[in-house]
């Protein structure tokens, strides 16, 4: 059997290396955290002190690492794989990296007469454990055929995509769909929960109809049970979406859904959810709704939901049309009184009308851009002031996170 150097024992790499051992391959491991190799050593693996050492004498070296910088260091660094491989051997990188990184490694190894395949995978942790990963492969097809037995030991489908970099392009396009699908599932479940529907019953409809997806099958139960244990981490999902964004920028291709998805996952990262599963971004929606996705709430319970009472001074820019092609505007003082899942509640002595748009300006210390809101509800009180419910529009996910943090700081000041 072939000797395989395997580098990277994270969520995906460890079960992949275990499958190679179970298939009878001679496996030499390298991982920065040595303790992760202990279970695999019991299965017959040996360990190396550097990637170069893991590559010495190997027929094939596989890498499954977290990002471009780590892959480049492991393959081309001072103690990298490139210094331990003989001519005629093969490096297979299963990481999700930039196509430019894959092409660079291909070029460097070609100078040593070593083949390189960029072969990222889809399937997450369960598929890595069961040996049913799907590989998308870029590089020389002859090299793929020579190492097909390795791929078949780890996956159920191997698709040749084209020359070097093609596998990485395919993976970024694929993960764009994964991220958007996951957010679609979360948003749909959130709507159902906020409407008081039973989450499990609603999920049955999703799984049985045209809204079904692999994300619904894999993560629907996780979301309902609020199980955010990582099958594929939120921070890695965000990394892939940002890489995909770099590709679309370079291709001069608009990608509005990709950018919206990346913004939402950035919010999740900002909330400290990076190491949790990608579906943990649902916690952003739960905070906006003031309720969990997996637990239905009656109308009365939702009415009793605690609201965040505030007294934050603001200014409002109000614009009114005078006639076609002209309008007048003025700036008026106001107070931010309440934050809800979908908007803000403002107080001002100035009379406004429903469906009027106002621009909300915060104090300079907030470091927030002006925020546009539409007046959807008006209440008056005995003091001569008006309370306005404003639906926010066009608010970027990052700005929303900044707004929440600013409001939270004021709440602490008031309660402290």
Automatic annotation (TrEMBL):
The keyword Oxidoreductase applies. Residues 165-284 form the 3-hydroxyisobutyrate dehydrogenase-like NAD-binding domain. Its EC number is 1.1.1.60. Residues 301-408 form the PilZ domain. Residues 3-162 form the 6-phosphogluconate dehydrogenase NADP-binding domain. Pfam families: NAD_binding_11 (PF14833), NAD_binding_2 (PF03446), PilZ (PF07238). Keywords: Oxidoreductase. GO terms for molecular function: 2-hydroxy-3-oxopropionate reductase activity. SUPFAM superfamilies: 6-phosphogluconate dehydrogenase C-terminal domain-like, NAD(P)-binding Rossmann-fold domains, PilZ domain-like. It is an enzyme of class 1 (oxidoreductase). Belongs to the HIBADH-related family. PANTHER family: 3-HYDROXYISOBUTYRATE DEHYDROGENASE-LIKE 1, MITOCHONDRIAL-RELATED. This is 2-hydroxy-3-oxopropionate reductase. It comes from Paenibacillus konkukensis.
């Amino acid at each position: 059997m072939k000797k395989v150097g395997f580098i990277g024992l994270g969520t995906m790499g460890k079960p992949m290396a275990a499958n190679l051992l179970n298939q009878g391959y001679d496996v030499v491991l390298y991982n920065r955290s040595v303790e992760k190799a202990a279970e695999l050593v019991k299965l017959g693996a040996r360990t190396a002190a550097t990637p170069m050492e893991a590559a010495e004498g190997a027929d094939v070296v596989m890498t499954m690492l977290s990002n471009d910088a780590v892959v480049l260091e492991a393959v081309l660094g001072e103690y990298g794989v490139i210094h331990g491989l003989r001519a005629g051997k093969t490096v297979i990188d299963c990481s999700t990296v930039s196509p430019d990184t894959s092409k660079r490694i291909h070029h460097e190894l070609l100078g040593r007469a070593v083949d390189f395949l960029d072969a990222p995978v889809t399937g997450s942790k369960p598929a890595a454990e069961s040996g049913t990963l799907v590989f998308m492969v870029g590089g020389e097809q002859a090299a793929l055929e020579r190492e097909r037995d390795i791929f078949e030991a780890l996956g159920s489908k191997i698709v040749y995509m084209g020359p070097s970099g093609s596998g990485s392009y395919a993976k970024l396009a694929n993960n764009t769909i994964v991220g958007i699908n996951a957010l679609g599932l979360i948003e749909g479940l959130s709507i159902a929960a906020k409407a008081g529907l039973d989450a499990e019953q609603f999920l049955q409809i999703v799984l049985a109809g045209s809204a079904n997806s692999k994300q619904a099958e894999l993560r629907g139960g996780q979301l309902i049970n609020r199980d955010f244990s990582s099958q594929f981490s939120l921070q890695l999902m965000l990394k892939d979406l940002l890489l995909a964004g770099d590709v679309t920028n370079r291709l001069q291709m608009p990608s509005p859904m990709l950018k919206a998805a990346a913004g939402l996952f950035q919010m999740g990262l900002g909330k400290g959810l990076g190491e949790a599963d990608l579906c943990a971004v649902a916690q952003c929606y739960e905070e906006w709704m003031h309720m969990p996705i997996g637990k239905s709430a009656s109308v009365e319970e939702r009415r009793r939901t605690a609201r965040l009472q505030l007294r934050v001074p603001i200014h409002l820019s109000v614009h009114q049309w005078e006639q076609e092609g002209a309008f007048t505007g003025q700036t008026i003082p106001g107070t931010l009184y309440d934050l809800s899942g979908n908007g803000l509640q403002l107080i001002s002595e100035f009379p406004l009308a429903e469906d009027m748009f106002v621009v909300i300006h915060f104090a300079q210390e907030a470091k927030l851009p002006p925020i546009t809101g539409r007046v959807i509800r008006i209440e008056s009180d005995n003091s001569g002031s008006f309370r306005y419910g404003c639906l926010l529009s066009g608010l970027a996910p990052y700005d929303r996170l900044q707004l929440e943090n600013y409001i939270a700081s004021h709440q602490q000041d008031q309660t402290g």
